[in-house]
Amino acid sequence: MHSEYKDVSIDQGATFNSLPDDLPCNEEQTQQDNGDASEQADQSQSPEKDELRPGLVLDSCMQPPDIAQEALSYGDGIFSVAPAQGNKPVGFFAIPKLEAMAFPVQFPTGQNTLDEVREKKLSPSKYFNARLFCVDTRFASDQSYLFFAQFVTETHMATNSMSIQMRKGKPITRDGRKISSKMLQDKQEVEKLITNKDATRFMQPLRGTPAYWEKTLKDLNAMVRQLGKPTFFLTFSAAEMRWPEVIEAVKAQQGEQVDFSQLDWNAKCDILRSNPVTVMRLFEKRVDALMTDLILSPAHPIGEVEDYFYRVEFQARGSPHIHLLVWIKDAPEFGDLQDDSVVIKFIDQYITCQMPDPNADPELHKIVSEVQLHSRNHSKSCKKGNVMCRFGFPKLPMDKTILTYPTPDDDDDDDNDNNDQQQSAQKNRRKGKKGKRKSRALRLRQNEAKDKLQTLRNYISDPNVSFNNLSELLEKCNLTYEEYKKHVTNLTMSNVIVLKRHPKECWVNGYNPDLLRAWNANMDIQFVLDEYSCLMYMMSYVSKPEHEMTEFLNDVIRDVKKTNVNEKDEMKQIMQAYAKHREVSAQEAVARTCSLPLKKCSRNVVFIPTDDNAVKMSLPMSRLKDISPDSDQVWMSGIVEKYADRPRKPEYECLCLADFASRYRAVYGQQSKGKNAVPLLNDKGYIQKRTVGKPAIIRFAAFLRREKSRKVLRATTQTVLSTQIK
């Protein structure tokens, strides 16, 4: 018997009498009461029918039932206004047996909870991993328990991060004083020293928070700056409804076997919702297999990958998808070649929008027909920004893949040589004429192009009309091929790839045949033309889920600053605001709680502080007490200090700071006792050469324009030139 509920009795009569006599059992009505299941659903269905299908969108901690209406239904009782008057408030985590009382089904005896004393103490992260990964699915199948586990885990991490953040500061104060041991041991003095720090930086270790993704953006920016232009940008969406192994694995954990082909949509949704932990873990394994066994394999389906970066994003319906950047060895770069044919040949080698022959390749034809066709009815996401389709469907057909360039405003001659037009467009793009007002001649050309191409768009949008080739379509529109290409170019506002496409393939999204066959769900692949645009595009995806949350936290920070509270209380209020104003799906909660990767990169990123007064971490209080009160040697050694105390050996003497940071890493604990660990001078610790993967990417601070010349020169000198060993 549960120790906390042994004195509780349940009035069965009152419970069952409160239920209505007749419950509606209309399957069609049930479907109408649920949300949009997935953008990967049958594209031939109308948007209205897609929204009526039940899906995973309800698996969110921000979408509970109507609590107010639910409370009103119990209006016959008596409410106690102040039952705790005169008592002392108890913290949320200070409540004994909290987990057992909140989840009596999971803990029928009220024992073996998180707060129990054990011989070996478990952190919340390890404890909940054991619970959610247990063969007993009572924990993984309860989404309330899942969100509880995430809240406890992240709150514990935030508390630890606050303690670390409180130890960070700059060695020199604003009034020019050096921070001493005595100052750091004075609580009031410490509060004065830390008032100017970033109030959300302590949230960086909390995966999925705005601070976490802000750091990710900086790392990605450093990758693009150091590695150059990425080659491909890919997106892979989840389609659990199409993957029999996912549903069969969930039912196998429940001791049952099912025939996937006999399950309807509702049955599949119920199975997936019954165990989001297994569903998310299988997605993570599928992504890992896609990367390891295919993309990074010797098969080279998109070329030999030298580096990559991907991020897991969770859609509004809860299912994850992957955004991936890859750098391909010896890939041609747009803009470096006078002839675009090399780039076009490379694109055609790995990207296609062709509808496969159903007789020659029925498997691929089936996949493309089911997941790569854009809906003719257009979903709600297509119409964002008051446009018919922000993805540009139906795509314009073309006999061969071409690269289009933006027409310069000052080019009024429609018969200019194509090469001169391309050079002029590239010149104007380098000058940054994005914000320049369009000339009257350009507006006239664009309006004419829109009018001429609108007739063509109407034909390819009509499902009752078909054409055998592009020539037949152009003849119907009274256009020559050269006129058609000219109108397409006149509508181009930036460099655009127009893939080879038959008129019957205008609704097919671009894909790679090998990757699509293996993934068996919607994908997209694009060749990167401009690294700056690609970086901003990737940044928008990385920061999209937390954009509104960032604005909200900024408002909270401004309000907290007005209350004149100390740094620790400020961080607590920010964490509480974040915990109460976010939307997390069940699968995202699994990824956060169980430490499944939300991002992955082929290289580590190391930050090198180059400022004169860079932020450092102070020594622990236990060590500060043993130091002279007037001593300013109160900081832990960072990468710069370790570099200065590198070993007196030839292979280290010629290293600059950038090479040292990218090739070596600091090791602690048992790793410092390994045979590959190298001791530093002056007891500054141990380093070890990076043997797994490639050298790390280095990142350093950006500077304002007015102070750029001096600080950039100092940063370059400090990181690139080697210094003498002390």
Describe the structure.
The structure is a single chain. The chain is of the alpha+beta class. Among the domains are: 60-177 and 545-601, no CATH class; 374-379 and 388-407 and 439-507, no CATH class; 605-722, no CATH class. 41% of the residues lie in helices and 8% in strands. The protein is built from 29 helices and 14 strands. The protein has a 5-stranded antiparallel sheet with strand order 7-2-4-3-8, with helices on both faces. A 3-stranded antiparallel sheet has the order 11-13-12. The protein has a two-stranded antiparallel sheet with strand order 1-10. The radius of gyration is 30 Å and the shape is globular. 27% of the residues are buried. The model is unreliable at 23-52, 62-76, 411-418 and 425-435 (pLDDT under 50). Residues 128-326 form the Helitron helicase-like domain.
- Count of helix runs: 29
For the largest sheet, list the strands in their spatial order. 7-2-4-3-8
Low-confidence stretches: 23-52, 62-76, 411-418, 425-435
Largest sheet: 5 strands, antiparallel
Report the average pLDDT across residues: 77
Shape: globular
Helix content: 40-55%
- Tell me the Rg in angstroms: 30 Å
Return the structural class.
Answer: alpha+beta
DSSP strand count: 14
Query: How much β-strand is present in the residues?
Result: 5-15%
Give the CA-CA distance, first to last residue.
69 Å
